[in-house]
Amino acid sequence: MGIAIKPDFEGPMLTTDKLATPLSLARGPAMKNRFMLAPLTNTQSHEDGRLSDDEFRWLTMRAEGGFGLTMTCAAHVQAGGQGFPGQLGIWDDRHLEGLTRLAAEINRQGSVSSVQLHHAGIRSPKEIVKDVVGPSDDSETGARALTDAEVEAARDAFIAAAKRAEKAGFHGVEVHGAHGYLLAQFLSPEVNRRGGRYGGSLENRARLTFEVVDGIRAACGPDFQLGIRLSPERFGLKLAEIRDVAAELLTQAKIDYLDMSLWDVKKEPVEEEFHGRSLMSVFTELKRGNVRLGAAGKIMGAQDAAEVIEAGYDFAVIGRAAILRHDFPRRVLADPAYVSPSLPVTERHLRDEGLGSAFVTYMRAWKGFVTEEAA
To answer: Whole-prediction pTM value?
Structure first.
């Protein structure tokens, strides 16, 4: 039996009309609708970080399928910042050929193109990265603390990667400051136990994130789009602190959009002081001026996406539902009751939706996602 993914909403059905409307950004082209493809790990790139044909097909099918913004998986900005096998690279000019080809096709499909910039920090697998690094020495992972000079080198690598994305023809980049990777590690008072300019107070722990944003904005053109992804829970993060970082990013307005990865857009905050309200509402109450706000987390159907917009967000970030259907936006806009296919799905289904062998293998590790039956 499959596990049905059912819409979790009550009352009258929400309209999906706003999901179809264009969304202007302070810089660069507008999104033609309110759907952003989440940056999804897929392990399909070549060992040296060059784009593969499978990854090209996976991403360009989503652009063709109607996403207003098509984002790559997390692309590591330093060789030593790799987070998983088959990860897309953007740390060397050898990556430019594939990235240029990818940007051109996403743009041709009328989708805004973006690369997510990433460094795994202490989450780098030891079998891939021999010298695992982070904000502080970490006995669990064997990571060592970066020196201040190495922190600055990592910052400069994010900036250089953004310039590389711009050279390749992408409309913009998203900085990965979420999910316990390097920038989130610096933000965490549990993981970041260093002193000096990059440790201690929230201002110091957030310094690297703001220096990356400032550096990209200064180094790239005036129409180059810049987003940032934050997650407000897990990995030693404090909701009130992430809220304050988000508020400052919105106030400074050097970014064009803030992508909040909430794990589940319907959930309440874990921390007791925030109980009795939705996690989404913590961020919609912030003043955001011309910066756009999006949310990700178990958006599996038309009504889920409509609820995100109804809650005050500007766009919905689609992850697993985009794996299941490359044309999720078109299906939602054609049917306000649309719900993703029930799980598990066959390998043949995933291959028809543009997943290559490596991506299918990766999805088999997700419990209940891929059937064990013959395709």
So the answer is: 0.95
First and final C-alpha spacing in the chain: 15
The predicted structure's pLDDT at residue 1: 35
pLDDT at res. 10: 57
Between the alpha carbon of residue 34 and those of residues 13, 255, 276, 346, the distances in Å are 18, 18, 28, 29
- The Cα-based distances of 123 to 144, 211, 361 in angstroms read 12, 22, 21
Distance CA 45, CA 53 (A): 8
φ and ψ at residue 236, rounded to 5 degrees: 75, 10
Q: Are 116 and 104 in contact (CB under 8 A)?
A: no
Tally of CB atoms within 10 A around 267: 14
Going by C-alpha positions, the residue among 116, 56, 126 that lies closest to residue 90 is 116
Kind of pairing between the strands at 257-261 and 292-296: parallel
pLDDT for position 372: 81
φ/ψ of 23, rounded to 5, equals -125, 110
Say what the pLDDT of residue 12 is: 84
- Closest Cα partner for 171 from 320, 57, 67? 67
Tell me which residue has tokens 């992804």. Answer: 229
Write down the residue that tokens 């590389």 correspond to. Answer: 164
- The number of beta carbons lying within 10 Å of the beta carbon of residue 220 is 20
Q: Say if residues 170 and 115 touch (Cβ distance below 8 Å).
A: yes
Q: Which amino acid is at 39?
A: P
Domains and CATH numbers, the chain: 17-343 (3.20.20.70)
Q: Give dist(CA 75, CA 235) in Å, integer.
A: 21
Mean pLDDT in consecutive groups of 10 residues from the start of the chain, 375 residues: 47 92 98 98 98 98 98 98 98 98 98 99 97 97 97 98 99 98 98 98 98 98 98 97 98 98 97 96 98 98 98 98 98 98 98 98 96 68
